[in-house]
Recover the amino acids of this structure.
């Protein structure tokens, strides 16, 4: 699973891997094929129209797969250009990643992996057309990069798009993100870089892909915020723009080429490293719920509003979170200790269109978001969290040096909890086996919340394995799938070294 | 027929009757947006321009279809 990160946070080795892969694609002529795919597409089929977002999501996905292929790293993720933190002094412009601004007069980029002499741009006929050029902030319409508040403002806009499905519509998330109305986000990224980023051949500058990765991240978060706001137009729009129309200049393999084929990021194994405030959960703005406490009044007072709560689990148990009242609520549960890690979502599991989630939860802090099913509605409700029974469920015990225990992550985002007793001081090995990509966290001694260590892939294949020096006591092991969408069987075993 | 011609960054821009645009003799398609009173071209998808001449200069200056920068 590739995680798309803020380009400024890439490590030295990640920068080396990414730039080497881009240069290799260029050497093989594949990079220029991507430039031509964009440059020779019908401009209005992929810009200034609803398919702008799905077309570029698919384009990035194809490019990312090529990067993974030439690098040999299936986990290589495209980084995104975090505009509010991506000005000319940002580390993404250092010479080990993108190189910096162009010459004050010629605009030629003379440092970094894509410098003059090392990197040649092409025109829309595929002919070499000189060095890469940049002119940071020198276009009169793009002297500053988008600010965080401008991004948040656009993230609040619904619907996805509206007739006449072009650059003139104001009440359109797509058009405001693209930049022809509102604060101008995507277009400003192109304009701020200037030079080679201005024309249809703009993928000549590798920052193109980071700019669009940011655009895709914003769309992804908008989809999380408004899960009931679908792609528009479903039908009746210009050909190539409807939900099930084939998109221009897009291959029909390995997936089909319609907007509907790329709507779910999770289906494309796309994950981002962080979310903006207000997407999913913002733990700084959450209301605390007491387990087995009184009902808490909630109110969706404006359309599209999301209410945020948290509660703390001290002991492994089955917990029930539910709303009551006349509003048709939708509940999402996140955690533990991570307000972006979704565990479950429910619409009508409670009475009278209320939502209800029952889930076995290990210790930690959990987060709940409540919205109304109808994004145009407002209304009040009540919410509470209770333990399902007073008897704590049994946590499966792993026998040290005993046989492996069979287990399975049956639902996406499920967390399995185990315990084992360390009878004496020593080195203990805790590992999973099987074909499931597991992620392990160990807690203790004698605590479900005192984290000792985590591991992803130290075991065989993509299994987790930890070798720890432990004191006598009770230890707890959480196993989840590395991917938020993954499921699968595995075995887990604990052994003590002699 | 009125015609204006200028040389901009070694390219010849010619505008006939304020509605036909040629750069280095090649006819350039463009659009005029009556709502915004701005000109746009398939070559430059991210911005609209206040006049046809401004659009033509931007095409010459910012695309690599007619000129390129020597290293």
């Amino acid at each position: 699973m590739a995680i798309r990160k803020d380009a400024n946070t890439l490590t030295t080795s990640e920068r080396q891997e990414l730039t080497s892969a881009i240069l290799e694609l260029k050497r093989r002529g594949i990079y220029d094929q991507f430039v031509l795919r964009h440059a020779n597409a019908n401009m209005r089929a992929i810009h200034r129209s609803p398919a702008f977002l799905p077309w570029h999501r698919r384009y990035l996905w194809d490019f990312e797969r090529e990067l993974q292929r030439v690098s040999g790293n299936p986990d290589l993720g495209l980084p995104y250009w975090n505009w509010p933190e991506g000005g000319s002094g940002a580390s993404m412009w250092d010479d080990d990643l993108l190189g910096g601004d162009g010459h004050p007069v010629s605009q030629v980029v003379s440092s970094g992996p894509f410098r003059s002499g090392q990197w040649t741009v092409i025109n829309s006929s595929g002919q070499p057309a000189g060095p890469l050029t940049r002119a940071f902030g020198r276009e009169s319409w793009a002297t500053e990069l988008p600010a965080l508040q401008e991004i948040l403002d656009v993230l609040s806009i619904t619907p996805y798009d509206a007739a006449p499905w072009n650059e003139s519509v104001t009440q359109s998330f797509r058009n405001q993100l693209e930049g022809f109305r509102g604060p101008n986000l995507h277009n400003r990224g192109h304009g701020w870089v200037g030079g080679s980023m201005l024309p249809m051949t703009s993928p000549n500058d590798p920052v193109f892909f980071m700019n669009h990765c940011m655009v895709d991240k914003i769309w992804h978060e908008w989809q999380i915020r408004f899960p009931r706001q679908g792609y528009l137009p479903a039908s009746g729009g210009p050909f190539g723009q409807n939900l099930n129309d084939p998109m221009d200049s897009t291959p029909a393999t390995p997936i089909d080429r319609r907007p509907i084929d790329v709507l779910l990021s999770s289906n494309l194994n796309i994950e981002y490293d962080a979310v903006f405030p207000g997407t999913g959960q913002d733990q700084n703005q959450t209301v605390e719920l007491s387990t087995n406490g009184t009902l808490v009044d909630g109110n969706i007072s404006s359309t599209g509003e999301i209410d945020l709560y948290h509660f703390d689990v001290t002991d492994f148990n089955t917990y029930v979170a539910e709303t009551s009242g006349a509003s048709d609520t939708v509940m999402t549960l996140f955690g533990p200790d991570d307000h972006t890690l979704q565990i479950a979502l429910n619409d009508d599991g409670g009475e009278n269109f209320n939502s209800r989630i029952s889930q076995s939860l290990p210790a930690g802090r959990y987060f709940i978001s409540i919205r109304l099913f109808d994004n145009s509605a407002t209304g009040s409700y009540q919410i509470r969290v209770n333990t399902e029974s007073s008897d704590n469920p049994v946590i499966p015990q792993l026998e040290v040096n005993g046989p492996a225990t069979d287990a399975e992550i049956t639902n996406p985002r499920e967390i399995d909890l185990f315990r084992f007793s360390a009878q004496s001081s020593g080195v203990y090995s805790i590992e999973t086996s099987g074909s499931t990509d597991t992620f392990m966290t160990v807690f203790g001694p004698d605590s479900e919340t005192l984290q000792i260590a985590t591991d992803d892939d130290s075991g065989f294949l993509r299994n987790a394995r930890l070798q720890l020096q432990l004191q006598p006591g009770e230890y707890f092991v959480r196993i989840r799938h590395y991917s938020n969408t993954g499921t699968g069987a595995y075995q887990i075993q604990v052994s003590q070294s002699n | 027929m009125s015609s204006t011609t200028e040389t901009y960054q070694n390219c010849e821009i010619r505008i006939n009757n304020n509605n036909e645009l040629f750069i280095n003799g090649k006819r350039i398609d463009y659009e005029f947006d009556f709502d915004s009173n701005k000109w746009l071209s398939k070559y430059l998808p991210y911005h609209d321009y206040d006049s046809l001449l401004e659009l033509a200069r931007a095409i010459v200056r910012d695309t690599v279809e007619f000129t390129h920068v020597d290293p």
